[in-house]
Write a structure and sequence with these properties.
globular, five-stranded antiparallel β-sheet, about 10% helix, mainly beta, single chain
């Protein structure tokens, strides 16, 4: 199933920004005026946000070793994951999902913005515009020798 999900990127329009690595999420938001992109880039996740078709206004890098990826737990209707990016008092939680029970497998994504732990905004991907590279983030974490410990809900190097 993983190979089928990664094909979603190959079938969709190219991302708004040039991903420097494996794509996780790429979409337009706010009626096509803004773009969101998240990628695996070396040993980090990268986040870019800005006007569609132009250079991003904001680019963040979050080392994978920080363990801010919350992977799909293997159950439920949606295959979903989220990654948090930190920038001073701000946190950007990027989430993406695929409805595995619908025949056309609709995708969704977006960013929730926090300042000092208080939610200040949510920007959702435009309907039908979220292109996903599901499992790319989890595969990258595992390639670093990390595994998800369900009991404590965090990444660990003490893999079974």
């Amino acid at each position: 199933m993983r190979s089928v999900l990664l094909v979603l990127f190959a079938l969709a329009a190219p991302p708004a920004f040039a991903c420097d690595g494996d794509p996780i999420l790429s979409c337009t938001a706010r009626n096509g005026t803004m773009a969101i992109e998240v990628c695996v880039s070396g040993d980090a996740f990268t986040y870019a946000y800005g006007p569609a078709g132009r250079a991003p206004d904001l680019t963040l890098r979050e080392p994978m070793a920080n363990g801010t990826l919350y992977p799909w737990q293997g159950f439920g209707r949606d295959i979903a994951e989220s990654i948090s990016f930190h920038n001073g008092p701000f946190r950007y939680d990027v989430a993406c999902s695929l409805d595995r029970l619908e025949e056309d497998h609709p995708t969704a994504g977006g960013v929730t913005f926090y300042k000092n732990g208080t939610k200040i905004a949510v920007i959702a991907c435009d309907t039908g515009r979220a292109m996903l590279g599901l499992f790319a983030a989890q595969d990258a974490m595992q390639a670093l020798g990390l595994c998800w410990d369900q009991g404590v809900e965090s990444w660990t190097a003490a893999c079974p």
